[in-house]
Design goal:
The chain is of the alpha/beta class and 282 residues long. It has a single domain, classed as Alpha-Beta Barrel (TIM Barrel), CATH 3.20.20.70. It is 40% helix and 16% strand. It is built from 10 helices and 11 strands. It has an 8-stranded parallel beta barrel. A 3-stranded antiparallel sheet has the order 6-5-8, with no helix packed on it. α2 links the parallel β1 and β2. α2 packs across α3, α2 runs parallel beside α9 and α3 packs parallel to α4. The protein is globular and about 50 Å long. The two termini are 22 Å apart. The C terminus is likely disordered. Belongs to the BtpA family. This is BtpA/SgcQ family protein.
């Protein structure tokens, strides 16, 4: 049994993204609509995701484009306010992701009680956001210092819009990341949000680290659920839950429900025969 069952309540878990609108200080923040609009958009998406049956949610400043790797205080403060105001309505386990700043993600998790964070914790990358460096040893020490040792760490080892600076194959990255850092999960991504995670890449990573949770991080759709979940231990899902499957749109509850119905059917089919029999007898 993986920690997904313990923390989220199921294997093959679906972590749904609750994308936040641009926040104060972001280039596309709408000062006329203000934070009230950002909060209500987040609330509408959260409730649609929960009613649709997702296993967990992850709050992310997705529309803070273009992203920073040293995120400013006003971004974290705005995210903390939104999650704080929604706390009474959150009915599933939740995580946070402050794009793209590992320490700030942990700060937000500690402040809000999030169960997990997803980030770029290790490696050096050439990216759309410039040279993307990390200091995983310092970040993990920071995690301990702020009392967030319980927070599960989801390591994105194939960052979107970035490439490892050294010429290293994915097998080497997966093995060394697990050996050196003991991540709670590895996230394998496509090029951008909504781009399907390469199935062969997932297989290669999982083969190298069979005892580590591996998540498909982008591009899960209703038509590739079986293909992706037959390899991955779960998935982070955002774009396909939106109206018309478009990244910038609001969440479509009907799309969420149809997707999750298919996931639950897949999980039921994948259960060991003994477990199914026990359920029927009860």
């Amino acid at each position: 049994m993986t920690w997904l069952k313990e923390i989220i309540g199921t294997e093959k878990a679906i972590i749904a993204m609750c994308h936040l609108q641009p926040l104060p200080g972001d280039p596309h923040y709408d000062a006329d609509k203000g934070m009230a609009y950002v909060l209500e958009a987040a609330r509408a998406d959260l409730l649609a995701l929960q009613r649709g049956g997702v296993d967990a949610v992850m709050f992310s400043n997705e529309f803070s484009l273009p992203y920073l790797t040293d995120v400013r205080t006003e971004t974290v403060a705005a995210m903390a306010r939104i999650i704080g105001e929604l706390m009474g309505e959150i009915r599933v386990p939740f995580g946070v992701n402050v794009l793209w700043d590992a320490k700030k993600s942990l700060d937000l998790a500690a402040a809000t009680g999030a169960s997990f964070v997803r980030e770029i914790f290790s490696g050096v990358y050439a990216s759309d956001f410039g040279l993307w460096n990390t200091n995983v040893g310092e970040t993990i020490r920071h995690q301990r210092q702020i009392g967030a040792s319980h927070v599960k760490l989801l390591y994105n080892i194939v960052p979107e819009a970035a490439q490892y600076l050294a010429d290293r194959d994915i097998e080497s990255v997966a093995r060394s990341t697990v050996f050196n850092n003991r991540p709670d999960a590895l996230c394998v991504s496509g090029l951008i949000a909504g781009a399907e995670t390469d199935g062969q890449l997932l297989k290669r990573v999982k083969a190298q680290v069979p005892d580590t949770v591996v998540l498909a991080n982008t591009g899960m759709r209703i038509d590739n659920i079986e293909r992706q979940l037959s390899v991955a231990d779960g998935a982070v899902v955002g774009t396909t839950f939106k109206v018309d499957g478009r990244f910038e749109n609001a969440v479509d509850e009907a799309r969420v429900r149809a997707f999750m119905d298919k996931v639950k059917a897949f999980r039921a089919q994948a259960e060991p025969t003994g477990v199914k029999a026990a359920v029927k007898l009860s």
